[in-house]
Amino acid sequence: MSSSSSPVIVGHRGFKGKFPENTFVGFNKCFELGGTVIETDLWLSSDNVIVISHDQSTKRVFVDKDGKETNYNISLTPYDPVLKNLKTIEGNYPLFTFRELLTWFKNYVDEHPGKEYKLELDIKRLNPAKIAKNIVEDLQSVHSDITWWYDKIQFGIWDLNVLKYLNQDDFFQDKFINGQQFDVFHISVNWRDSIHYINYNFYLDETTPVDRAKIKLTGVSLIYISTWSTGFLTKFVPLLRIQDLKLYSWTINNKFQFDYLSKVGKLADLVEYGVISDDPELMNKYKEQQQQEEASGSGELVPLIKSESKHYYNENGDLTLDLTFQQRLFHWLYLQFNLLVGKRVSVDEQQFAAKVDENKIREIKPNGIAVWIFQTLQKFGIF
């Protein structure tokens, strides 16, 4: 069942490991050196322009036209005349709009036929749900045929209300034709949270009128440490299989992480699996090496059921892989970190039928210690 493109190679913020994040130079290098998907980050400015930035604050990455430090909250700041003049600290690249990204992407696809290039849009939790409408409007402004975008755009959501909004607002009903849609991934730091999103698919199947389009979750994008557990293998992977959901994992930057996800994807026969990496070139080399080994017969081809193998489905139908002591330890430590983060699925997300306020911006007060730990680990490429 796994697609021939698996593992899909996704460039994290373009090619974050070697080039400034979320810049056209990094995006070009991602596609040129083996990635087929670019993961990037969206924020809606106060004048309803979608801009490309990982952080809501401009402080870490951007300076003004005079090279002075900035600290704008993008959601509270207009693109014109403020944000449009900002440049990256590293390389002096512009803070650009989503529409500019789409124009570049369409030109790139037109100039490089034969490959299935995609954009994965990381829609941050502090965005209002209406950003989904702005996204579709920008897509159609660059290419008016919305069906052209179906296999080229992936929504990455941290908030179920965005998916609920896609189903509730009539604006989207004529945008999804004959059951076709964009991929919608839940970006998650814990597979247990993603179960709630999967349950929303069941809810849609049970409650959506036959004459109304339903936009469903098609995949989950998990932080890799969350997948290093027996519970993930025996409880969550079967849910992916039941609904033919894709599995991506982030941020994968070494061969051990790459090989582990590949084993999960192959053994579970997932419809598609992908690695989100700071170094898509390196991941593509691993993929090519894997393909060469399998073609020559020297690769590890593990059958789904084989009693003498370490990797197989047991008599209960559970996928089992040998997890190393290091994996189990890191996963346990990560669970302790999750205790600092606290509850992640809000009350309004739990209520599938609750009406979404498209303008609401969540007020979240993150644990300062948890934020510092996460950002520090990201700086060293661990998350």
UniProtKB/TrEMBL annotation:
UniProt keyword Lipid metabolism present: yes
Subcellular location: Membrane
InterPro entries on file: GDPD-Related, GP_PDE_dom, PLC-like_Pdiesterase_TIM-brl
Tagged with keyword Metal-binding: no
Lineage: superkingdom: Eukaryota
Domain GP-PDE: 7-287
Molecular function via GO: phosphatidylglycerol phospholipase C activity
Keywords, alphabetical: Hydrolase, Lipid metabolism, Membrane, Transmembrane, Transmembrane helix
PROSITE patterns, A to Z: GP_PDE (PS51704)
SUPFAM superfamilies for the chain: PLC-like phosphodiesterases
GO biological process, one term: glycerophospholipid catabolic process
Gene Ontology cellular component annotations, sorted alphabetically: cytoplasm; membrane
Cross-referenced Gene3D superfamilies: Phosphatidylinositol (PI) phosphodiesterase
PANTHER family: PHOSPHATIDYLGLYCEROL PHOSPHOLIPASE C
Similarity field: Belongs to the glycerophosphoryl diester phosphodiesterase family.
Protein name: GP-PDE domain-containing protein
The species this protein was found in: Candida maltosa (strain Xu316)
Taxonomic lineage from the root: Eukaryota, Fungi, Dikarya, Ascomycota, Saccharomycotina
